## 1
Amino acid sequence: MRRLNQSAIASALTLVIPGVLATLDADGFPYLTPLWFLHEPGVGVVMTSGVDRLHVKNLRRDPRASFIIEHEGVADMDGRPNVQVKSRGVCSLDEDHARWTRRITKRFAGSDALAELRAAAPMVAIVFEPDGWVGVVDGPRSEGRWWVDALAT
């Protein structure tokens, strides 16, 4: 396993794969939610979600959270390559979600119609502000940047 530098971490955060947001439930246990996201330098990781979702309720009570993305390469006889980028931090909620919802939906679904439909729904923007990023790559070909091929998709 080797650590990624900040440039490689920034590249990994552009992968069009869902991230996983971990919030704390009322009993203090992690609650994991896969979400579409957009990494916006200077802002953080922005996600949008329904206002009544449990992870949003958790964040209203306690803004502490963690976020991770993981991308696996094609496994072969040498093993399973993967890259992970993760952080812990705090989240803020922004009721003015429409512009974020449009951008995120277009990024993941490629549909203007769906983006407009979701932008009109009762949602909230979740802005995750990381304490700092940790990125690692492991498995066969971990010295190469095999995972950057996914950036073109």
## 2
Amino acid sequence: MSLNLALLIGRLGKDPELRYAASGTSVCKFPIAVDVPKKDKDKQLPDWFNIVAFGKTGENCAQYLTKGREVFIEGQVKTRSYEDKEGNKRYVTEIWASRVQFLGGGKDKEKHADDTLKGDDAADSKVVSGDMTDQTSINNLGRIMHILDKIDGEEAPF
């Protein structure tokens, strides 16, 4: 059995960039910073992750997210390679988002505080706003909070 699942809560490091693939699919990219608990708070530096969202989810991220906005990301870790301009092979590790949930901060904070985007193409994407009636969102966030409660106060294993 294997599992490739990334669950992240962090803040956007810059505004999302929206582009379109040759096929017409929208591709949105943005970095997020995730705080890592450490004993010495003065030396605490975030871990950075490059997020990629496709289709309608990507378009909505580009429209509503801004630098500093807090988000919950659910997706898969993907590593790909490409050749740079000098012909060198480069590797990139990204999180391909299957779900993006706006948690707060940024512009239009109150209007979009609980928006959820799901899916990796326009057919699977939807926006749920208001009181978070999406039971899956509530269950997933409950599990995450339970895990965070268990490790809260404990020394990080690294």
